Amino acid sequence: MIAPDLFAAGTPGDDPIEAATAQFDSLTQKLPDGGIHLVGFSIGAMVAAHIAAARPERINRLTLVSPAAPLQLGNFLPQMAGQPVFRLAARHPRLFSALTYGQGVLTRAAPDFLMRRLFANAGGAEHALLENPEAAEVIRKGLYHSFAQNPKGYARMVRAYVRDWSPVLGAISCPVDIWQGAADRWVPLAMAQALADRLPGKVRMRLLEGSGHYSTLSHLNLGDTSTPSGKMRGFGALRVAM
Questions:
Q1: Would residue 26 count as lying in a domain?
Q2: Residue 121 belongs to a domain with what CATH number?
Q3: Per-residue pLDDT tens for 158-208?
Q4: Distance (Å, rounded) from C-alpha 15 to C-alpha 228?
Q5: Overall domain count for the chain
Q6: In this structure, what DSSP letter does residue 232 have?
Q7: Whose CA is closest to 68, among 56, 52, 88, 83?
Q8: Of the candidates 90, 82, 6, which has an alpha carbon nearest to the alpha carbon of residue 40?
Q9: Cα–Cα distance for residue pair 174/62, rounded to 1 Å
Q10: For residue 69, what are the domain limits?
Q11: Is residue 106 part of a domain?
Q12: Based on the number of CB atoms within 10 Å of its own CB, is 107 exposed (0-12), middle (13-18) or buried (19 or more)?
């Protein structure tokens, strides 16, 4: 299993998708073509989709978990907990950069306060997840990595996300699994369904009743059995994703 560091890839002037694709090429250069199972969580689904489209000969399966699909596929923003951030990134990129800087300051000074604010509208499934000290620590470290250590990389990725990247979906030729929590407040079910409808090949939707954005990771199975994959049990998938 290889987990790239998407926010740290490249230099401040780099296109984040090009940088992530180059990182993918470097990390997988010794692996045979057609044998890679690519996984993308949340906004990482955008990166995984681009790589699957750009390197079809290398990818044999694509798994998208709680996937943040192109905003242009429908009117999803009113249903998304991240609506204010995405609107700001799309309309006022400088203010968005300032917000990201402020979140970095808060991450260092008051990480638990920031985490509670970010999860305020996340729903019961995610609130229950934060009650687990192990899960909360993983998320806390993920926020620190994004906002405090790599704010420019995080901001570049969000700005890339709010642009229209829906044409990429038509170039994905491998089978796709979508894991979606029915109680996800960051990625509404309608967005995941619109993504599935736009993909041209074989798509399998795994709908998890009662699961939220992050808690869906605890059910993730990358094989063909009904139980979570070994490295994904418990909070294993959360550690990899964050």
A1: no
A2: 3.40.50.1820
A3: 999 999 999 999 999 999 999 999 999 999 999 999 999 999 999 999 999
A4: 34
A5: 1
A6: G
A7: 83
A8: 6
A9: 7
A10: 36-241
A11: yes
A12: buried
* Contacts (Cβ under 8 Å, ≥6 apart) of 130: 115, 116, 119, 136, 139
Is the model's pLDDT at 233 over the cut of 60? no
Alpha-carbon span 152 to 203, nearest angstrom = 34
Task: Tell me if 8 is assigned to some domain.
Answer: no
The closest of 212, 207, 208, 232 to 222, measured between CA atoms, is: 232
pLDDT tens readout for residues 117-158:
888 877 777 888 888 888 889 889 999 999 999 999 999 999
CA dist list (Å): 133 to 113, 118, 140, 143: 15, 17, 10, 15
In a domain, 24, yes or no: no
Please give, one letter per residue, the 3-state secondary structure of the chain: CCCCCCCCCCCCCCCHHHHHHHHHHHHHCCCCCCCEEEEEECCHHHHHHHHHHHCCCCEEEEEEECCCCCHHHCCCHHHCCCHHHHHHHHHCHHHHHHHHHHHHHHHHHCHHHHHHHHCCCCCHHHHHHHCCHHHHHHHHHHHHHHHHHCHHHHHHHHHHHHCCCHHHHHHCCCCEEEEEECCCCCCCHHHHHHHHHHCCCCEEEEEECCCCCCHHHHHCCCCCCCCCCHHHCCCHHHHHHC
pLDDT in tens, 103-126: 999 999 999 999 888 888 777 778
Phi, then psi, of 86 in degrees rounded to 5: -70, -40
Beta bridge partners of 59: 36
CB 82 within 8 A of CB 187: no
3-state DSSP assignment of residue 117: helix
